[in-house]
Amino acid sequence: MVPAVLSAVAPWKHGVVLVAAVAGGFVNSIAGGGSLLTFPTLVWVGIPPVAASATNTVGLWPGSVGGVVGFRRHLPERRIILLLGVPSLFGGILGAVLLLRTPQHVFEGLAPVLVFLATVLLAVQEPLSKRISRGGAVGDGSPGFATAAVVFQFLVGVYGGFFGAGIGIMMLAALAILGLTDIHEMNALKNLLAIVINGVAAVYFVTQGAVLWTDAALMAVGSIAGGLAAAALAHRLGRRLVRQAVIAIGIAASISLLLKFVG
């Protein structure tokens, strides 16, 4: 159930949300996993977990558009886009509906698990991406693999609409099942499908009044600013250092959320 009125957090906490969004946009641009910073922050400042997840999806969505624009020339043929775009769309809608129908106390129990799962996915993303770039895809583009990829992508869409963090590595796995091997092409399609999943979920959250708009707007501005700043510092810091830092933060966040809700 969506609460009839979502109370706003204290003004000073908006500053904390903005800083987290800048950091989230920064790490999304370099390594991925920005939601591991922003979602726990929204919960920590007092926003209920369901509303925090909805606000997080809406707030970070604008910052991900740049990834699609940057990789647009690497997009695969339209057939593949439609093949995976349709299950992404319906999966995202179903996941969003499930989120707002999940009782608050149930999602409180799921939140630490979801954050930890996303952290694990981020940890395995780099080695899996390297394996795929060396031609380690498991599919061959046959109808059987195509069906498996569509079903898997639908499940990714459901997870993405419900929570969202970590869907990138899941989609790389789906594309590997389908037989794609060009990592630039896969990243381009992954970014586009993420826009579809998060976009349709965001629209549903908005229509259901599940979004705290002040925080969502601050997150949108902060994530875009963080993404732009990342371009200047990416080579100085390096993907590995940023990824390791986010993984450590994700583990700490999952433990903190567990203690918060259990306590």
| SSE string | HHHHHHHHHH
Shape: globular
What is the terminal-to-terminal distance? 24 Å
Approximately what portion of the residues adopt beta-strand conformation? under 5%
Q: Gyration radius, to the nearest Å?
A: 17 Å
| Total beta strands | 0
Largest sheet: none
Number of domains: 1
Explain the overall architecture:
The protein has 263 residues and is mostly helical. The chain has one domain (11-262). Helices cover 81% and strands 0% of the residues. The chain contains 10 helices and no strands. α2 (35-44) packs parallel to α10. The two termini are 24 Å apart.
What features would you highlight for this structure?
10 helices; 263 residues
Short description, anyone?
With 263 residues, the chain is mainly alpha-helical.
Map the helices and strands:
Layout lengths: L10 H20 L4 H10 L4 H22 L7 H24 L2 H30 L9 H20 L4 H12 L4 H25 L5 H25 L1 H24 L1
